[in-house]
Amino acid sequence: MTITDSTNSTRHLLDVTDFTVDEIRQILALAEQPIESLGRPLAGLGVSLIFEKPSNRTRHSMEMAVVQLGGHPVYTRGEEVGFDTREPVEDIALIMEGYHALIAARVFEHSTVTRMAAVVGVPVVNMLSDQSHPLQAFADALTMQQCLGDLSGKTVAYVGDYNNVSRSLGEICAMLGMHLRFASPHGFGAPEAELERLALLGAPSVEQSVRPAEAVTGAHAVHTDTWVSMGQEAEKQQRLQQFEGFTVDAAMMSLADPEAIFMHCLPAYRGIEVTADVIDGPQSVVFQQGHNRLHAARGALAFLLGVRPEAQESEGGS
Ligand code: CP
Ligand code: NVA
Fold this sequence. Notes:
Blueprint (H helix, E strand, L loop, with lengths): L20 H12 L13 E6 L5 H12 L3 E6 H4 L7 H8 L3 E7 L3 H10 L4 E3 L7 H15 L6 E5 L4 H12 L3 E5 L8 H9 L5 E4 L2 H5 L4 E4 L11 H7 L7 H4 L7 E4 L11 H4 L6 H19 L14
Parallel strand pairs: 1-2, 1-3, 3-4, 5-6, 5-8, 6-7, 8-9
The site of phosphoric acid mono(formamide)ester has 8 residues, from helix 2.
C-alpha cells in the first residue's frame, strides 16, 4: 500500500481560505465561462461524492458539474462507507483515490475532510462540514458579483446563526474586500478572534451586533440561513425562541440599500428566518443563487483539475 505523502502539492477545497484572492477570482471567472471552453478534464474519470447529510443543491450541482467536465459522478451515502465505523476515514480515502480523480464529501466533522486530504494525492472537496461550506460561498460571491458588480467596498450583512455558511461567506466576502456586518443573538455570534481573523483576510471593516437593524442598514446584500442546521434538530424548539426578532422581514429589508438583494443558501423556512414576502419578493435572488451552485462547482472543480481562465492562460496564472 502506498500512502501519499501529505506534503504533496495536490490542491484541496476544504475552505475558501485554501485559495488566494487571485485564485478565487480565477474560479469565479471559470464559473462564468462557457462549458465547452473548459475542455473535458474529467473525460473517462470518476468523482466520488459522499454524503453524511441530506442535500438537494450540492448533490445535483456537483453531479452535473462532473458530467459537464466529462466525468462520471459516483454517489454514496455516509452510512454506506461508514466513516470510522465500517473502516477508518483514511482507508476509505486511500481506496477511493484509486478509482477517482477527485473525492468530495459532506460531513458532520470537518476533521473527516482534513484527514482524507492528508493522505490522498487527488483533490478533496468539502461539500459542507460543521465548520464551513466553501462551495456555497463561491456561488454566493458569483451571485453578488452578477447583481452588484465589483464587490470591493460593498457591504454584506448576515443575520442569524454564525454557522458553516456564514463563516465561509464571511471569508470570501472579506477576501473580495467587502465590509462585513453580522447580527446574531447572544451566544450565537462569531467569537472576537473570528472577527479579527476575517479582518485580516482583507475586509475593510467587520462589525457584529445583537441588533439586526444595525447590521442591515445600508447593506447591499442581506443574507440569512436556517437557525437549525443539520445535526441540531434536538435544539430546534429552544433555538426558535432564542432567535426571536432575527427574522428577515420587509421592515428589516427596508433599512438596507434601496437596491439591496436578499440571499439565502436554501433550504429556507418561510416565516422562521425569513418571511415569505421577502424570499418570494422582488429583492430576492435565491434561485439565481441556487442555480449558481452549478456554475461555481464547475469552476471550482475545473480549477482543481488545472484548468485556468481564458484571459489568464497566456500570463501563466498564479
Ligand atoms: N445550500 C445547500 O447546500 O443546499 P443542499 O443542502 O440542498 O445541498
Ligand atoms: N447551515 C445549514 C446549511 C444547509 C445548506 C446546515 O448546515 O444545515
